[in-house]
Amino acid sequence: MLRAAGVGVGDEVVVPAFGNVEVAEAVAMAGALPVFADIDPATYCLDAAAVEASLTSRTAAVVAVHRFGRPADMSPLHAIGRRHGLLVLEQGESEVPYDEIARRRERAAYLDGKLRGVRTPDWGDGHTYQQYVVRVPGNGRPDRDAFARAVRGRGVDCRVPVKTPVHRLPGFRRCVSLPVTERAVDETLALPVDASLTRREMQRIVSACNALGGLLQPAF
Q1: CB of 89 within 8 A of CB of 2?
Q2: Which InterPro entries match (predicted)?
Q3: For 111, 115, 140, 156, which has the most beta carbons within 10 A of its beta carbon?
Q4: pLDDT given at position 212
Q5: pLDDT tens-digit map of 83-96
Q6: What distance in Å separates the CA atoms of residue 9 and residue 16, rounded to the nearest whole number?
């Protein structure tokens, strides 16, 4: 789509650094330079104000990525595109049958009501819970990683959704301040929310997390 729109050498394309490297790679393959903007802390998608602040005379496009099943707020991004004459693209997530989405939402609602010591995700409009991502409060990554190890030790599978932001990866390393992105990388943890989970398995998730109470080591 970037190539078809004439985006190429000498152009800049604004993308998120929180998530997959493939978007930045696609920009580079088109011959353009990926420019990283910060995200909204609730949706984990591009923040419109951060996007506008990152624009230069060379900006040709913005690529928004829907994250974890929570759609990006496209209205302000399209408004920026109209004001500045920019192409605004979206990268969606894989389609999921409606009945599976309904079961995920049911399980997410259960976790929302039962979990303690972690910050549960913002429901938001149209959230399909492709991942159920919580925040582990405390002193950043050491607390989140210790929490994850302890939860796994109690028989609950969980994973870090984004281990390294794209602007810190070789080949895309940028000296840019993205505080919301970097905090999200340090604090987020994806808990199981699969449609196939039983009531007993959901209870195990809650018990494992609530037994830890969030912060596992003191902040210094």
Answers
A1: yes
A2: DegT/StrS_aminotransferase, PyrdxlP-dep_Trfase, PyrdxlP-dep_Trfase_major, PyrdxlP-dep_Trfase_small
A3: 111
A4: 86
A5: 999 999 999 888 88
A6: 20
Q: How far is CA 109 from CA 41, 121, 156, 181, in A?
A: 20, 10, 18, 26
Domain of residue 106 covers: 98-210
Task: Say if CB 205 and CB 111 are below 8 A apart.
Answer: yes
Q: Which helix (DSSP H) or strand (DSSP E) does residue 152 occupy?
A: helix 141-153
Within this chain, do residues 60 and 105 fall inside the same structural domain, yes or no?
Answer: no
Rounded CA-CA distance 39/17 in Å is 8
Across 64-100, b (16+ Cβ under 10 Å) vs e yields bbbbbbbbbbbeebbebbeeeebbbbbbeeeeeeeee
Tally of domains within the chain: 2
Query: What are the C-alpha distances in Å from 43 to residues 5, 91, 184?
Result: 28, 15, 11
H helices of 8-73, in order, are 22-29, 48-53
pLDDT tens sequence across 167-194: 999 999 888 999 999 999 999 999 999 9
Q: What is the CATH number of the domain that holds 118?
A: 3.90.1150.10
